[in-house]
Amino acid sequence: MLIDEELTLKKLEIFLAFMRTGNLARAAAELSTSTVSVHRAIHSLESALRCPLFKHEGRTLTPLESAYVLEERAQKLVQDVVGTVQATREAAGFSAERFRLGSLYSLTVKTVPQLIMGLKLRRSELNIDLILGSNIDLLYKLKNMETDAILVSLDDNINDPDCAHIPLFSDDIFLATPIDSPFAQHAEVDLADLKEMTFITLTQGFATHQDGVRTFQQAGFEPKVAMQVNDIFTLLSMVSSGVGYALLPGRIAAVYENHVKLVPLQARYRLQQHIGVVFMKAKERDPNLLALLAECRMYAHRLA
């Protein structure tokens, strides 16, 4: 080997501390260690380099020309290693300056803004990228390191051994109807009464689509689907325009509230979505992720 195994970055850091302070005791205090440890590290460094660095006069060490050469090169080496570690961690998404948060469209009404505001208070220097999509798309991005955490419905697909999650809240599924529809005046609806009506749904992959399929199965019919859309806000616009009805979570009640009414389903059809934050277990010690998880726990506690 070209480099002796006794030549370590730790010993170079101790050597640099001694060169800065010019004194064993001051170097030991700076490094929170003993003078004996500093002296031993310097002696070991000379052995690894196979050349003297200091003129030894008892415990007094006078730097030789070789020590000044090593000091100059070692400073650059340590800085390069620190930069390399930082770049490597950032490439893996650990404590990077950017945080990539994935979310369902429906959570941008209330949940996402509150979590982002809290996260920015905790880590003001952090730039946050918001990535919107379906449950399946977001889980795929998470596992491929394209997102750092995702806010999704905690359905069966989330039960992945590489992932962990924290629940945030649960949300009921409602019938979304135009405000002028007769059903808008009901305290609750029997979904079977809408067997002949036209529905609008999200595309496959969205949790609300899957929940809708299960609810229609409970009602004993397959809905007449006029169209499928890729986001919940387009779907709401279609409902408000009278294109059809939809099954949607209660968290979007404030959107189009003057044009769309969310009516509870009868108890036998009631279904809840469980919303939570999902992340890779391998990244659970990342400072940025820890800050988000702390904010998520506070958010869940406020809703409890």
Please tag this protein with its features.
40% helix; single chain; alpha/beta; 304 residues; 23% strand; two-stranded antiparallel ribbon
Question: Could you characterize the architecture of this molecule?
Answer:
- This protein starts with 8 loop residues before the first helix and ends with a helix.
- It is rod-shaped and about 100 Å long.
- The mean pLDDT is 90.
- Strands 3, 4, 5, 6, 9, 10 and 11 form a seven-stranded mixed beta sheet that branches. A two-stranded antiparallel sheet has the order 1-2.
- With 304 residues, it is of the alpha/beta class.
- Helix content is 40%, strand content 23%.
- The chain is built from nine helices and eleven strands.
- The chain has helices at 9-21, 24-31, 35-49, 65-91, 111-122, 135-143, 207-219, 232-240, 287-303; strands at 54-57, 60-63, 98-103, 127-132, 149-153, 163-178, 198-202, 224-229, 246-249, 260-264, 272-280.
